[in-house]
Specification:
110 residues, mainly alpha, 4 helices, flat, transmembrane, Amino acid transporter, AAT family/GABA permease, transmembrane helix
């Protein structure tokens, strides 16, 4: 088994964060829909166990990539960018709340 080059690994790393975020969002959205007794148009197989398995698998791959020295810089920089994005979203949300606006689509829909 060969290890991909740094150029290929950075694309794979970005692709690792997206599906994990989608699965986490799917868990949260489904819980919100069920609380509101809304119909779920597209049901996922083996929910929630398969969703949790996907999250664990992708997280495991990211941990292995962090352990490997040739991928550590890529994982660290991408993780730093993700943390900066989350912090920026909190700042933006707080500013929107102070201005009286609602920036959270789940809360403004109901």
């Amino acid at each position: 088994m060969s290890i991909p080059s740094a150029k290929g690994a950075s694309g794979e790393l970005a692709q690792g964060f997206k599906p994990r975020q989608v699965t986490i969002s799917q868990l949260r959205m489904r819980a919100t829909l069920q609380r509101r007794n809304q119909a779920i148009a597209c049901r996922m197989w083996l929910f929630p166990w398969l969703t949790w398995a996907v999250i664990a698998f992708i997280s495991g791959v990211l941990v292995v990539m962090f352990i490997l020295p040739e991928h550590r810089i890529e994982v660290s920089s991408t993780l730093g960018l993700a943390v900066a994005t989350v912090l920026l979203s909190f700042t933006t949300r707080r500013q929107g709340a102070q201005a009286g606006g609602r920036l959270d689509p789940l809360r403004s829909a109901g």
